[in-house]
C-alpha cells in the first residue's frame, strides 16, 4: 500500500514550516555574510564565522533536510511518520537552540548560554533520531534508509561533540586544544550528517525524477561502508587518541566512497529517460560538480605548508561545501519537493486541477537565479583565496539577491491558495 | 455481425478515459507513460485495472490511483471496480508510447 502521510494536515504544516524557516535562515545568513566579509580572511574559529556557519548548517540546511525527510521517509519505509508531535517539538527545540547558540557565538557568551543552547539542540536531535528510527519497521532495510539513519546517528555524534565543547569552555576538561575537537565536529557534521544523508536522499530522488534505469545501486553499498569506516577512524583517533593530523589518511576511504556515489549519479544521468533537464535538476547536477571542487580544495589545503595560504583554502573549502554544494542542491531540490506537498494539499481531492506542481513557483526567477548563484560562488571562492575584498563584496551582494529570490519563490509556493 | 463485443467497447472506453489521468510530476498521461498494464471488464468481476508506477514509493502514486478510481466511478457509477497496483513486470521506458516519448522529449 502506498502511504498517504503527506496528506495529513499536521504533517503538511510541519514540512511547510521547516521549509519556511530554512528559507528565512538562508536570507538572514546572507545578510550576516554581507556584514561580516572581513571574517573570511581570518581563522575560521571566530565569532562571526561560527555564527554564520551554524545558521547555515542548522537553520538553513538541517531544517530543510528535516522537512524533506518527513516527506520522503514515508515513501522509503512505506510507513506513516511515527509522530507529528515529536516532529513539532524537535522543530521548536532546533529553532530555539539555534537562536540562543547564534546569540552566544555573536556576543561571545561562551559559558552558561552556549551550554543551554547546545543542550537544547542535542535534545532536539535525539528526538529527531527517535522519530526517524520509529518510522521504520523490521521490513525497512533499503540502502537509502541505511544511509539516512546512519546520517542521523552521525548528526547525534556531531551534537554531542558540540555540547562537550560548549561545556569545556567553562569546565575545561579536554586534555588537548579545543580546535582538535572543532576539527572532529566539523568533519563528522559535514561528512557524516550531510554527505551520508544527501547520498541517501539523492539515490532515491534523482533516479525517480530523471526516470533513470539500470542504475548501479551496488556502488552505494561500498560507498556506505567506505565513508563510515573513515568517519569511525576520524572519531576514534581524534577523540580518544587526541590526534587529528592523521585525518587526511582517514579521508581517503571517504573520498573513494563519495567517488563511488558520484559514479552512481553519473550513471543515473547517463541512463535517464528525461533527456531535457528542468532548472531544479540542472541545479542538482551542478551541485555535484561543486562537490568535486570542494573535495579538491580540501585535499589542496592538506598539502599546503604556508599557514596563511592554508587558512584561506580551509575557509574556501568550508564555503564551497556549505554555500556551494549543499546550498546549490537545496536551491534545486526545494522545487522538486515543496511544490508537490503544497499541490497535494490543495488539489488532491479536487477534480478541477488548474495547475501542476511546477506552476506554483516562478520558473523565470529560478532560471535567473542559477547564473546569479554560480557567479556569487565564483566571486566568493576567488575573493577568499585572493583576499580581494571587492570580489567578496560582489559575491555577498549576489548571494543576498539569490536568497531574496529563493524566499520569494518559496513563499509564493507556500502561500498558494 | 459485431466485430467488437460490448465488454471490449467498455474496456476501450476506459482506456481512452484513463488518458485524462495525468502524472503531475511529468505532465504526461498514464496511458502514454505505459503505466496501465491491463483493463478488463466482465459482468461478474466488473472493471479491473492493473497499473504500475515508474518507481516504487513514488509520492504521486496515491494521487494517480485515486484519479483512476474517480474517472471510472464517474463514468460507470453502477459497475463494480477494482484498481490493482502491480510491480510485475517492472516498468521501463520501452513501455512509453511514441506520443509519450514526444511529450518527454526523448527522441
**Inertia-based shape of chain A:** globular
Distance between the termini of chain A: 30 Å
What percentage of residues of chain A falls in helices of 4 or more residues? over 70%
Structural class of chain B: alpha+beta
Beta content of chain A comes to under 5%
Q: So how many helices of chain B?
A: 3
Q: What number of domains of chain B?
A: 1
Mean pLDDT of chain B: 89
Residue stretches of chain A low in confidence (pLDDT < 50, at least 5 long) are: 1-5
Walk across the major sheet of chain B and give the strand order.
Answer: 3-4-5
Taking all Cα atoms into account, the compactness measure Rg of chain B is 14 Å
Q: Tally of extended strands of chain A?
A: 0
* Multimerization status: heterodimer
Note the overall shape of chain B.
globular
What is the succession of H and E elements of chain A? HHHHHHHHHHHH
Number of strands of chain B: 5
Provide the succession of SSEs of chain B.
HEEEEHEH
CATH topology of chain B, what is it called? GMP Synthetase, Chain A, domain 3
Uncertain ranges of chain B: none
Compute the separation of the termini of chain B in Å: 42 Å
Estimate the strand proportion of chain B: 15-25%
Protein traits:
heterodimer, A: 417 residues, mainly alpha, 12 helices, globular, disordered N terminus, B: 107 residues, alpha+beta, GMP Synthetase, Chain A, domain 3, 3-stranded mixed beta sheet, 5 strands
Helix-strand blueprint:
The complex is a heterodimer of chains A (417) and B (107).
Chain A: H1 9-35, H2 47-77, H3 84-106, H4 112-135, H5 143-171, H6 178-210, H7 218-240, H8 247-270, H9 279-303, H10 307-347, H11 363-386, H12 389-414
Chain B: H1 6-17, E1 22-23, E2 28-29, E3 36-42, E4 46-51, H2 61-75, E5 81-85, H3 98-103
Parallel strand pairs in B: 4-5
Antiparallel strand pairs in B: 1-2, 3-4
